[in-house]
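User: For a benchmark we're assembling, each entry needs the component sequences followed by a predicted structure for the full assembly. Here are entry 17's components. Please fill in the structure.
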Amino acid sequence: MDKAAVIGVGITKIEANKIKETFADMVWEAVNKALSDAKMTIDDIDNVITTSNDFWDGRTISCMAVGDASGARHKNVSCVEGDGTFGAFYGLARVLSGSYGTTLVTAHSKGSESVSSLITNAAFDPIYDRALGMDMVSACALQARAYMHRTGTTPEQMAMVSVKNHGNAKYNPLSQLPMDITVQDVLESEMISDPLHKLDCSPVSDGCCAVIIANGKRTSRYGGVPVWIKGVAFCADSYFIGDREISKAVALTKAAKNAFSMAQITDPLSEIDVAEVYDAFTYQELMWIEAMGLSEGGKAGINLEKGHYDIKGRLPVNPSGGLLSGHPVIAGGLIRIAEIVKQLRGEAGGYQVAGARTGVAHGVNGLCGQSHCVWVLTAS
Amino acid sequence: MPKKRVAIVGTGQTYHKSHRPDVNGQELINEAVQRALKDADLTIKDIDAVVIGNMDHFEGINYVDCWSVDGSGGTMKPVIKLTTGGTTGSTLAIGGYHLVASGFFEKVLVIGWEKNSESDTTGAITTAFDPVWDRLVFAGAISGLAAEAQAYMAKYGATEKDAARVSVRDRKHACNNPHAQLRREITIEDVLASPMLADPIHLLDVCPRTDGACAVIMASEDCAGKVTSTPDWIWTTANRHKYTYLGDVNWGELDSIAEASREIYAKAGIREPRKEIDVIELYQPYSFAGIIWIEDLGIVEKGKGAEYIWSGATDMGGELPINPSGGVIACNPIGATGLIRCAEAALQVMGKAEARQVPDVNFAISTGFGGCMWSDMLLHGKRKPDF
Amino acid sequence: MTDIFSDVEPMVFKSRINVPYAWWTGETAERFFLALRDDKKIMGTRCPVCEKVFVPPRKVCPLCFHEKMAWVEVSSEGVLESFTIVKRQLAALTRKAPVIFGLIKLDGADTSILHYIENPGHEDIKIGTRVAAKFNEERSGSMQDIACFRPIS
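Assistant: Structure for entry 17:
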């Protein structure tokens, strides 16, 4: 892959209900933070990619709400519908194509303004299975049980993901749910969809993220600190949950393999210093790590117990607190990229992973992780 | 210079109809994909990535990129969804171009589709507009178009009859296109006598609702020549999605297409588009746009659009044929519509447009329109771009 | 910036998107639903290339892209591949919680389907439990023609 870097990031505070802000207000804040981080002005931005979803936004052509706030008025602009990691991929492709030198990528979501159960029910096939009344939580609960069955992962181990990530969030001022909780607290929290307790699930959140990607000489023109993009790949599994090997994420395995190969990483377990993965539910953190080859098969739960995924562990995972501590859908994966950028610049403050040089960020589209996007980034 | 130059090497379309009860969405998509693969003599295994789009609220399916893989062939491949309203199809084409131009993928399958028969199109479009300011007072697609037409008529004195001439042209052209939905000629009298939907727009001035899909295969310069001896080279792309609120629009002129086209002409070194462009597939959802937007494209001077249309210059056999396919007035599966323009322009450049072929096409333009008076544009050429 | 909302209740504009949908099932799904409705049969399609049997049926093999799929009947009994017991009254639920959703691989099929699991005998259901379809007496041609799947011994 040709030279390209993330040269600026901006994240709003993630909150349960940003009642005072519209989509455009959130985007405006994140964009200005990213521009300031990159020491750029909007005039230095060649083109814009917004990322949104018409269902979550309750609006057809949802990108219309944020074009102006993204500074796209007299620029080339497009919109990816899906997770922010996919939006960033298109933004990266546009700078690598040579059409543009810099891309501003935004992703926003206000979970507070809709009913997530109904929104995710609409991802089920309307002819065959939507009328059953499933949603993201019940579908993922079904996947969690299959994963536990295959790997022997225990409810306690899953709870420990929640304890770790909410604990990490205490050091992240942008996080929605910093909490001191115990395994007991998780196991005693409301059982929403067996085996997923309330504290196994990420919250409903509002938030926005903006990332600036540059190619060639533009990476170092403005005085911000570039973080290099070494490998990016994405891959989709079959649609019907019943078509898939539901306890495994084979699409993620393929995407990770391709991203690592692009980045010339041969032994991810020893070469990756920090990971921000899409932990919409506790089991997913473990399942995704395993699928990416960052844990031996079926051993992620045991490794977690040993503290390997703590901020000071062998492979810190979601030091920012992850999605369990704040989950603005769509922005979720872009925030993972921005958090890895902070880590690799040594700017993560209280949740900084010491000596982090290479990091991986991950985003998901669809039910039960049907489609995955993996980014490998390295420090200057 | 792009990292990799990009060509269209195959296209496929469904036979677009008002209703396709015989297939579900995935199966409709698959028809277009199978045809495109056949056209390029490729199999799904040759495809490196899939770009797909539609407008969510027309079918009410969330995460269509994920849902559609059975039809698109995206299983265990990179699949990405782009959506920008009416411009979705052209946005997809621009997306496919950049995915190949970046060097990430050699062959990309680009798919636009819609089953407009499955919902209330205007009801769904109305939700595009700001819920507080615009949605309750300026609904659907047609009201914005009527406002544009009124503003233009007031400024330049164009008439409903002038617009009807554009409908007559496109519907005549559609008779040459087996994929078009409305394949029956109409007269100016027919248009003027058809019901008035939103003054000055009559029923026959405006596009229908359609079920249809379109697939386009784009390939990098490293393999395009191996796939086809007549690649359609994408020279460059540009777009402007300027407006957020309807009140922001400069009604009566399409600033977005003016800006995007000037960017394209500058990049490609085109000085006299009227002479240098051989055919245009214009995303023209209603007849008045056929007059107004050719002015904004710099084909004719402001206020001269109607005169140029009446001269026959944009008819088949004229100086600059517009919409040999019959255009959007004859067929409008919305998420596919912009991509159909791209595919039709590609067919013209590749010399595969059969009964609707314009002779000796060196340069073609395809456009997309949607959102809040937004425009997308691609420049297609027979020759490999020299930049 | 001063907080303009400090002394006021922020105004909220409430709305609902209410677009009616009518999805064409297409001929493939139609044949599946008619067999379910008229004969209480669960049909799939087999790809002659990869030999996989897909339920729900596919018109075209999603993996091989082969267009000549063969219709086959699969069993109305199968194995529970996974399940969840939904305890909270989530908004998408169309019946009163608790509701059990299961992923069932029917005998003769290579893919699984989602459906309700009912457990009137309070048996110990787990992954691998065998289940059988219970058909509704009145059927209209939808997945709801199967009332649920129940454990069998």
